[in-house]
Amino acid sequence: MNTVELLLDRETEHSVRQVWEYLAARGEPSQRHHRHPTNRPHLTLAAVGSLSAAAEEELRGWSGDLGCPAVLDGLVRFSGRTHVLAWRVRRVPELLAVHAALHDVLLATGCAPDHPLLLPETWQPHITLGRSRRPAWNVPDGLLLPPGLHDEPVRGRFVGARVYDSRTRTVTSLPPG
C-alpha cells in the first residue's frame, strides 16, 4: 500500500508533537509511542495498492498547492478494528482542491485510489494523535489537548508532500529533494 501525504510546517508539526507528548504523559495511547523513523505528523490524501510507473512519474512533478492552509480544529474519534484519536483538519477550499487534483492525477495514470474514506466525497481530513486496539480516550476533548492548544484552532500550512510505502516502510519526498 502506498499513501500520498501532506506534511506540516515546523511550528504546526511541533504543536502536534506537543499533543503526542501530552497524551503519553496522561497514560493515553499516543503516536509518540510509534518509534519508526518515518513516523511524523501528516495528512493522508490518498491510498493505492501500488503506483504505476506513470503515476510515479507524474508524482515526481506534483507538489499540490504546497503552502495551503492547515487548520487543526477539534478532535475526532474513529472506531473499528483500530480506535483512532485525531485532530480534525478543516476542509478549506485550497485543501479540497489539492485533494481533488491528486485524485485526478492518480486516476489519469491508472491508479484508482482504493480506500473509501479517502475519496473526495467521503474524506475526513485529520492528523492522527493516537491509535489503540481497545477503546480509549474516555474523557472530554478539552482534557486531551494541552493548555493553550484547545481553545482556538491551530493555524499553519502544509509545506511538503511524500509517498509512504507500507511494504518497505520507506518515504519518498514529493517532489524529491
Q: What descriptors fit this protein?
A:
177 residues, alpha+beta, 7-stranded antiparallel sheet, 7 strands
| Outline type | globular
| Low-confidence region ranges | none
Radius of gyration: 16 Å
Mean pLDDT: 92
Distance between the termini: 22 Å
What is the number of beta strands? 7
Helix content: 10-25%
Most strands sheet: 7 strands, antiparallel
| Helix-and-strand structural type | alpha+beta
Order of helices and strands: EHEHEEHEEE
In what range is the share of β-strand residues?
A: 25-35%
Helical stretch tally: 3
Q: Can you give a write-up of this model?
A:
Strands 1, 2, 3, 4, 5, 6 and 7 form a seven-stranded antiparallel beta sheet that branches. Strand 6 and strand 7 (170-174) form a beta hairpin. Helix content is 23%, strand content 31%. The protein starts with a strand and ends with a strand. The protein is an alpha+beta fold. The radius of gyration is 16 Å and the shape is globular.
Question: What is the secondary structure topology, with strand pairs?
Answer:
Elements: E1 2-8, H1 10-25, E2 42-48, H2 53-61, E3 69-78, E4 83-89, H3 93-108, E5 126-132, E6 154-165, E7 170-174
Antiparallel strand pairs: 1-2, 1-6, 3-4, 3-6, 4-5, 6-7
Give a quick rundown of the structure.
The protein has 177 residues and is of the alpha+beta class. 23% of the residues lie in helices and 31% in strands.
